[in-house]
Amino acid sequence: xxxxxxxxxxxxxxxxxxxxxxxxxxxxxxxxxxxxxxxxxxxxxxxxxxxxxxxxxxxxxxxxxxxxxxxxxxxxxxxxxxxxxxxxxxxxxxxxxxxxxxxxxxxxxxxxxxxxxxxxxxxxxxxxxxxxxxxxxxxxxxxxxxxxxxxxxxxxxxxxxxxxxxxxxxxxxxxxxxxxxxxxxxxxxxxxxxxxxxxxxxxxxxxxxxxxxxxxxxxxx
Amino acid sequence: xxxxxxxxxxxxxxxxxxxxxxxxxxxxxxxxxxxxxxxxxxxxxxxxxxxxxxxxxxxxxxxxxxxxxxxxxxxxxxxxxxxxxxxxxxxxxxxxxxxxxxxxxxxxxxxxxxxxxxxxxxxxxxxxxxxxxxxxxxxxxxxxxxxxxxxxxxxxxxxxxxxxxxxxxxxxxxxxxxxxxxxxxxxxxxxxxxxxxxxxxxxxxxxxxxxxxxxxxxxxxxxx
Lengths: 221, 224
Hints:
The structure holds 2 protein chains of 2 kinds. By secondary structure, chain A is α+β, with helices and mostly antiparallel strands. Helix content of chain A is 57%, strand content 8%.
C-alpha cells in the first residue's frame, strides 16, 4: 500500500468533497489535494469525470472514482485494515447507506432553495424543508454520540460537510439551526472536535461570502 | 411465517430488481402485493420516510431503497455474488447504478410525459444517457461479465419496462441501430431463467405506466 498515488480534485466549499477529505484523513492516507477553480473546470477533471464533470473525484494510481459516497465506500474497502467507516453488520450497513442516500436525495436540493432564493417565499419553503430533514436526522441520531453509535462513521461523514453551509442557510433563510435543532448542533460540535473533521472543513463565513458572490453574478441580488 | 417478505407491486421495476436478486440467491420469500393508491399500514410502518415499495422485511426488520436492498441481499446471502469482489469494479458498478436511477430512468420518463417540441428534446436527452450504457456493455455479454450481476439487475428495466414506456409515450428510445450492444444485452438478459420466470405481463406494465401518467397529468391540471 506504500506506493499508492492519491489525488483529490475538489472545490473546498463542496460538502461532498469534504466527505472524501475526512475519509482520507480518518484512514491516515497521504494524498495530493488539487483545488478546482470553479466554474472553470480543469482538463483533468473533465477527463476523469466525463459523465458528470463534477467534483469530488479521487484518482487512485491513475484511475478515477466519482460520486462522494461511492468514493468513501471505496476508501473503506481498499484500506480496510484500520478505522472502519461502515458497520460490518449487513443490516446496520443498510441503515447507514439509507441514511446517507436520504441526505443526498433531500438536503442538498432543499438547501439550494434557501441560498439561491428568488423571493422570500422560496427561501421560506427551503427553510421548512431543511428543518423537516434535520428533524428526521435528529430522530435517526437519537441519543447516540454519532449516527453510527459510539464511533464516528459513514453517515456522520456524509452529513458534517453541510455544516460549512449552515451559516449561509441561516442568514439567507433568517433562522437559527442552534435554536431549531439543538441536538443536531451538539452532534456538529462533537464532530468538529475531531482533528480529521476540523482540518477538512472550510470557514462557513467564507462560504456565505461565496454564496453572495454567486448570487450577484447570477442576478439574484 | 416467512423469514423474508417483500412488499411490492408486480409491475414496478425496482421491485423486480429485488425479486431477481432473491431468485438468483435462491432465497425463499413471501411477496405481499401493495395497492399504491391505498397503502397498507404495514408499508407505512416499515417505510415511514418514503412510503414506497419495494420494502424488504428480513426477520421483521425493514430495508428500503432498491439499491440499498440489493447490497443488503448480497451481503446477507453470500453465495452467487451480485457485486464484483474488486473494490474498483464495485465502485464502478455503484457509479453506473446511481447514474441509471438518477439520469436514465428520469430522462426516459420525461420523454414519456413530454409533448411536441419538448418531446423531441426529451428523446434526445434520454438517448444521450443510453449512449453511456451502450459504451459500458460493448464487447461484454452482461454488465457483470460472464454472469449477470448487480448492474444487470439495475439496468434490467430497459427490457420489458422500457418497451412499456415507449408504448405509453408513443416513441422509440432504445433504437437497435443506434444501440446494438444494449439491445442485444436486453435479449440476453430476459433469457436468463431467473429473469424469464419472473417477468410480469407487458400489458400490466403498460397499464401501470398509463395509470401513473394519467395521475401525474391530473395533478398538474389541478395545479394550474
